[in-house]
Amino acid sequence: xxDTNTQNNSPNQLKFAGDVNIQEITITSLATGNSVNVTNQVxxxxxxxxxxxxxxxxxxxxxxSFDYPANFPFVGEEFVDMEITTPSADKPGIKxxxxxxxxxxxxxxGDRSVVYELHFISVEALIDMNKKVSKVYVxxxxxxxxxxxxxxxxxxxxxKDVFVxxxxxxxxxxxxxxxxxxxxxxxxxxxxxxxxxxxxxFFENRDGFYFIS
Length: 213
Prior knowledge:
By secondary structure, the chain is mainly beta. The chain is built from four helices and twelve strands. Helices cover 15% and strands 43% of the residues. A hairpin with an 8-residue loop joins β5 (78-85) and β6 (94-109).
C-alpha cells in the first residue's frame, strides 16, 4: 500500500501493516521508447511472493487523468521499474523491472480521471514463456538448476541472486521442448539433500531465486 505520510509522521516510521514508501515507479514502452514516471498516479501496490510459485507477481492500482493506456499507448510491450522500501525495515526493499501482462477494471470517473489496475510479473516469466529447450541433461540436480536459471542459451538469463541448496543425487532426463521453469519443477522431484530428504521447493522472492530444502 502506498505511503500516506502526515506532517507528524516520519517516512521512515512504520505506521501500519503493509505500509511502504514508494521511491519511484516508471513505466517504459519498448515499442516506442517512451518512459513516464507514474509514482504520483499509483494509489496502491500489491506484491505477491509464494514459495509454491516461480515468480513474483503483483499489480498497481492507478488513478490518473492522462489516460496512459490510450495515449502512451499500451501495446503489450510495457515494463514497470519499481523501487519500494518498507519504513524502519533493515531488509532491502523491492527494486527491479517487471513485465506488464494485463490491464483490468478500467473505468472513467468524473470528466477526465480514469482508474484501472496494471498486473505485472518478473521479466524472467516472459523469457520462460518464449524459450523451449530440446536437450538431454545429465548431472547433479543443483548444478542443473543453476544452469536453467542463469544460462543465456537454455536458461532464464537471470542476473538476480540465485540460492541453491546442494543435492546429493544426479538426474538424467530429456527436455522435450520444455521451458526452463518446467525443467526446474521436474528436477524438484529428484532433489535430495544431505539428510536424504526430498523436500525441495523453487520460488522467487525479493532477494532472488531459491531452490532449497
